[in-house]
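Hi D.,

Good news: the full-assembly prediction came through. Inputs first.
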Amino acid sequence: MKSDINVQRAKDNENLTDVEKKHIPVIEAPAAVIAGEPFEVKVTIGSVPHVMEEDHYIQWIELHINGDFVGKKELKAADGKAEATFTVVGTEEMISAREIMNCRIHGFGVCGTCGTRSAIVILRALEGCNVHGIWEGSKGIEITSATSKPGKKCEWGPEL
Ligand SMILES: [Fe+2]
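Then the structure:
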């Protein structure tokens, strides 16, 4: 993972400060998607809209999924709104990688009992404010394999 020394995050998600409300990216995405099927992710800065003025504005918004770069939108004050929409595709590989991670935690054989194959992946949005620096927000969504078999579903969560 690259160094994130200059990236600012919410210190307490349940109790954002005023500056956090204006800078933490808000991610809108479906809670569950199918691998291989494109979906839209809208990122808005922030839960209280950030100003877009010549001397103070959001310069860019970037999106990653599970650490993979999705896209970056450059913004100008004249755009008026600090938001961007990205088209994202989850992959079967993201689910396979998760199975390996979970098997290491829970022991061999756990995944073999599972019919439906799904994984929680992390959408991570970054933004750059010309005054207040770089901020991050993230959200977990569930990707289900397009080749799922019927059966018991693993109860995997983003905390794993
Ligand atoms: Fe700002």
